[in-house]
Amino acid sequence: MEKVRAFLKRKNIEFSAKRYFIDAMSAMAQGLFCSLLIGTIIKTLGQQMELPFMVEMGGFASAMAAPAMAIAIGYALKADPLVLFSLAAVGQAANSMGGSGGPLAVFFIAIIAAEVGKAISKETKVDILVTPFVTIFVGVAVSYLIAPPIGAVANAFGELINKTTALQPFWMGIAVSVLVGISLTLPISSAAICHTLGLVGLAGGAAVAGCCAQMVGFAVMSFKENRWGGIVSQGLGTSMLQMGNIVRNPRVWIPPILASAVTGPIATCVFKLQMNGAPVNSGMGTCGLCGPIGVWTGWMAPSEKAVELWNATAITPTAMDWIGMLLICIVLPAVLTLLFALPLCKMGWIKDGDLDLKL
What we know:
Blueprint: H1 2-10, H2 17-49, H3 52-63, H4 65-76, H5 81-98, H6 102-120, H7 127-167, H8 169-185, H9 190-197, H10 201-221, H11 223-235, H12 243-248, H13 254-270, H14 290-300, H15 304-310, H16 319-346
């Protein structure tokens, strides 16, 4: 057993929830951002400006989502170069065999292939042949075995959420908004979760509402301590920056969560806000304004997932559509969070300095 532990330590193979479900999932979201998400934005801009080369450019970027996810996961697991580069093929295989639930298959299979590849890397004199072969062979073989069932489960669960939200927009609006919003602030990836589950339509709108409530909420609530730097870093960056303060005083999380519980059903029941862009946008909130951009791209050119589930078509947004998006994504999160924080501050549950990021 000691020899096994020593080998794993030498190979930097660490079986832990943090490494797999925080580090790897967060990196997977970055891979998604640098391929599918940015590709969708570029493609939509190209369509609106009638620039074919931008449409083609966006298509190239989007098509690389699976390899980008797998390589990002390998990077988070500190894979050696030959393992890292071999994961491109593994990601493509897992995603293809996983169908519409492919991203979840990529997540698990890339981890398995990366760890096996790390174990064999630099153990032979023909490493340049052995390591890529073993990494790709294991990844593709495992894809044949588990990618289809993983993809089917993820797709079924995602469809359940999407369709249940359409049937029960009030209660599911609250649930989706609160849970996805919380996952955005936690050190896991709400973007990867939304992409994996394919959250679009009303469920996507509720997810956008919850994520925006967390980011905008923390940004305005901590303005006294963090000023404009906090507005930018949290409102356009990530509310995850507040995790240290949340651990020290969990009560600071109450106002943004309550705000998301209000904006979620307003999005689904009042404004019928649908996020029909790429599902990854549902979990981005105001990070780079990707949530609102996803709503806009869904108006202009619905994603394949939105078309598949809801037969979504391009629309010309009305003034009410724009007002709804502005209220849900920016105005209501700011106002509601401040209103909910006020009594907590008076009760002494939230004190000066509790939200200081020391920027």
